[in-house]
Amino acid sequence: MHGRILDAAAELFTKNGYAGTSIEAIAARAGIGKLTLYRRFADKDAVFLAVALRMAERSRAELREIADGDGELADVLGAIGRHLLGIILSPQSIAFHRILFAEAARLPELFARIVPDQPTEMPDATRRLFHRLAERGLVRREDVAFLDQQFVHAIIGKPLRKALFGASPMTAREQEEHVRKAVALFMHGMTRYSAL
Q1: Is 72 exposed, middle or buried (0-12, 13-18, 19+ CB in 10 A)?
Q2: Buried-most residue among 29, 62, 78, 126 (CB within 10 A)?
Q3: Domain extent listing, the chain
Q4: Model's pTM, two decimal places?
């Protein structure tokens, strides 16, 4: 039932936004009574948080699997980049980003839980990859978080901003070209930066 509630809520938040989604609508879509939903979640904020955290964890798990694979660094970064861009530009992700930005001032604790300011104890996919490079002496250990941040922003920065402002969706070819160029630039820059 928990998963059914979150599936229903994710669908409604994506379609109707935060303000346009009610507890009653979530319960109805999940096929349960409102009181049953309230036994599991205190309020709509709690439902939204649970949906957002589940989305984030699923994405992290998929990306970790790619990052932990074998292959040349550029190929692994390219695979991570393609998958990450696909996740970020999905209609559900765009809808949830818009909600997060709209509700961040009203619900700072909620925003902090979903978008932590500090790295978590369990590194994300690219950070894990850069940690492995640091263990091999290919990058400095103190640069791992910085490299992780720079790579992620190179992949999603501009495409996400454009999507949030309603630009036409990137085609598969445009996404592939964007990732290819971002990875090539990052590899070149990382090599030079690590030598400083």
Answers
A1: exposed
A2: 126
A3: 1-41, 56-194
A4: 0.82
Q: Which value, in Å, is the radius of gyration of the alpha carbons in the chain?
A: 19
Average pLDDT value for residue range 70-91: 92
CA distance linking residue 189 with residue 71, whole number of Å: 20
CB 76 within 8 A of CB 129: yes
Q: State which fold the 1-41 domain adopts.
A: Arc Repressor Mutant, subunit A (1.10.10)
Residue 117's pLDDT is 55
Give how far Cα 25 sits from Cα of 12, 29, 141, Å. 8, 6, 49
Q: Which of 83-97, 121-135, 176-190 has the lowest mean pLDDT?
A: 121-135
Helix (H, G, I), strand (E, B) or coil at 140: coil
State the Cα–Cα distance between residues 185 and 52, nearest whole angstrom: 31
Q: What's the N-to-C CA distance of the chain in angstroms?
A: 54
Is 191 a residue whose pLDDT tops 80?
no
- Mean confidence (pLDDT) of the chain: 87
Mean pLDDT across the stretch 131-151? 89
Q: Which of 191, 190, 179 is nearest to 77 (CA)?
A: 179
Distance, CA of 131 to CA of 134 (rounded, Å): 5
